[in-house]
């Protein structure tokens, strides 16, 4: 039971950190063009 006093807050903290990282990525336009890089590799720009 003592381990739950450590594991539950640790899990909540990790979940909040993951949520914060996801929201940061959304606000910094990291998901704007997911197919663009896949298409750009096929064309040779000179």
Q: If you had to describe this structure to a student in words, what would you say it looks like?
A:
The protein is mainly alpha-helical and 46 residues long. The termini are far apart. The radius of gyration is 19 Å and the shape is rod-shaped. The protein is 63% helix and 0% strand. The mean pLDDT is 89.
Number of strands: 0
Structural class: mainly alpha
Average pLDDT, all residues? 89
Element order: H for helix, E for strand: HH
Low-confidence stretches: none
Distance between the termini: 64 Å
The number of distinct helices, counting runs of at least 4 residues, comes to 2
Rg calc:
19 Å
Beta percentage is: under 5%
Sheet with most strands: none
Helix content: 55-70%
Instruction: Note the overall shape.
Output: rod-shaped
Short description:
The chain has 46 residues and is an all-alpha fold. The chain has helices spanning 4-27, 36-40.
How would you summarize the topology of this molecule?
Blueprint: H1 4-27, H2 36-40
Considering the chains and any ligands shown, give keywords for the structure.
single chain; 46 residues; mainly alpha; 0% strand
